[in-house]
Specification:
The chain has one helix and 14 strands. With 267 residues, it is an alpha+beta fold. The radius of gyration is 55 Å and the shape is globular.
Length: 267
């Protein structure tokens, strides 16, 4: 019985030892497994962190690079566009200014005038800015006096008498040419002579000097189908200034020829 008891005790102790060993093994195994899991988790966390950091860094770098590239491209494009626009504008302005200056200098204002010849009148034009000879554009009989042209050259004004000599009486006409059947009478007034004549800047008002049937010289203006306005007496030759607002004319007072001026409105 003692041996048996001793065997039992020994078995019990062995059982407890085995149980403890198994428990330890289980604990160690759990701990190991846990250790393995923690190691795996740590490894994954590190991997993920590295991956995410790399991805974010790459993304940010790419984004920044793209943004900077876009910004720079936009800035450069805007700068270039502005520079080119400014350059082109300056070039065009310079070219236009040069072209206009050259054109203006080369063309200049044309002077349109008439002068008497045997049994008639020649009408000529001359560019005063160059040395070219006058160009005769019309040769008229003594039936015509005081020829004028609009600035555009589309219309002529003139004095016309169906007869010449002592009985000549000139009426005022206008038309695209000097053929009376093509013309329009400006007024019903007639004159012994028509002197200088010029269209105003409006292309319709006509300024002129004429000798009335009483033998007196006057400076007149007339717009088609309206009353004639007397601007001054004693006037012989006249011309509008370049602005078309002032009439300059010659006038004899006390036996002396003088140069006068008056505004086109009579003031």
């Amino acid at each position: 019985m003692r041996i048996r008891t001793s065997d039992t005790s020994t078995r019990t102790q062995l059982a407890w030892g085995i149980s403890i060993a198994i428990a330890c093994a289980i604990v160690i195994g759990c701990g190991g497994g846990g250790g393995a899991d923690f190691t795996g988790t740590s490894t994954n966390a590190g991997t993920n962190a590295g991956t995410n950091a790399g991805t974010n860094a790459g993304t940010n770098a790419g984004t920044n690079a793209g943004t900077n590239a876009g910004t720079n491209a936009g800035t450069n494009a805007g700068t270039n566009a502005g520079t080119n626009a400014g350059t082109n504008a300056g070039t065009n302005a310079g070219t236009n200014a040069g072209t206009n200056a050259g054109t203006t200098a080369g063309t200049g204002p044309e002077v349109f005038y008439s002068y008497g010849i045997a049994n008639g009148t020649n009408v000529a034009e001359k560019n005063p800015t160059d040395a070219s000879d006058p160009v005769t554009i019309l040769s008229l009989t003594d039936n015509y006096q005081g020829i004028a042209s609009t600035v555009s050259g589309s219309n002529l004004g003139y004095g016309y008498s169906p007869v010449v000599g002592a009985n000549a009486l000139y009426g005022l006409w206008e038309g695209a040419d000097t053929i009376i059947s093509h013309g329009t009478r400006l007024s019903n007034n007639v004159y012994i002579a028509v002197g200088s004549m010029q269209f105003g800047v409006d292309g319709t008002t006509v300024f002129y000097t004429a000798v009335t049937s009483e033998g007196n010289n006057f400076l007149f203006k007339v717009t088609p189908h309206t009353n004639i306005v007397t601007l001054d007496s004693g006037a012989e030759d006249m011309a509008l200034d370049p602005t078309g607002t002032v009439v300059v004319y010659t006038k004899s007072t006390g036996g002396s020829a003088e140069i006068w001026k008056i505004n086109v409105d009579g003031t």
